[in-house]
Amino acid sequence: MVGCGGDEAETASSGATATDSAGPAAVAPAPLVTPGDSAAPSAAPAPALSSRDSALSDAILKAPVTGPVNVDALASYQLSMEGLRKLVRAGQNLGELQSRRPELRDSMRLGAFDPNAIYEKLNSIPDVREAIGRAGMTPREYATATAALMQAAMVRQMRAQGMQTPPQVNEANVRFVEENWTQIQQMMQAAAEQARPRS
């Protein structure tokens, strides 16, 4: 279990490591935040993200300039299948934790997609840090990986629709998502159901 207070101990290693090329902990699937539900730990498949939702799109595409999960962290974070598997396991652990402790659902809910807010929220709850740590990640890696995956998936979706995308994106992550899209979808769709808290 990672220590309480302050930043989490950066001892766990993620398969999608923050090499000097891409962000902590990819989806994510981690928990992909959808327009209708912005609870940080809830896993959801990338297709649920709509490029027509301008507020969410902007939040995903424009990485924070400051904070632990910033534009430089996303630019240097490298997505990988091993990292995504850890992200999925972390999301499942969080879903199981919320099933045991329903009171955490509201406390972990966010009003908008913000990688730094996700990190701060997850890192502020000891049991949540422990759940993520059991997957081999830290809250920072989890938040970075989630943001990196969502950003790459959004860029892929926008390009497929012929839409203009920001000039500065992590192209390696976009290529990774494009090349592994079917497998990522299957992984996230399976994880979304398994990680959903049971009442």
Distance between the termini: 26 Å
Helix content: 40-55%
N to C succession of SSEs: HHHHHHHHH
Class from secondary-structure proportions: mainly alpha
Task: Report the uncertain regions.
Answer: 1-7, 9-52
Shape: globular
Overall pLDDT metric: 74
What is the alpha-carbon Rg in Å? 15 Å
The total tally of domains equals 1
Count of helical stretches? 9
> How would a crystallographer describe the biggest sheet?
none
Can you tell me about this structure?
- The structure is a single chain.
- This protein is mostly helical.
- It has one domain (46-195).
- Helices cover 51% and strands 0% of the residues.
- The protein is built from nine helices and no strands.
- It has helices spanning 54-61, 71-75, 81-100, 103-107, 115-123, 126-133, 139-160, 171-179, 181-195.
- The model is unreliable at 1-7 and 9-52 (pLDDT under 50).
Main features:
single chain, 199 residues, mainly alpha, 9 helices, disordered N terminus
Structure summary:
This protein has 199 residues and is mostly helical. Helix content is 51%, strand content 0%.
Write the layout of secondary structure elements.
Blueprint: H1 54-61, H2 71-75, H3 81-100, H4 103-107, H5 115-123, H6 126-133, H7 139-160, H8 171-179, H9 181-195
Helix pairs in contact: 3-6, 3-9, 5-7, 7-8
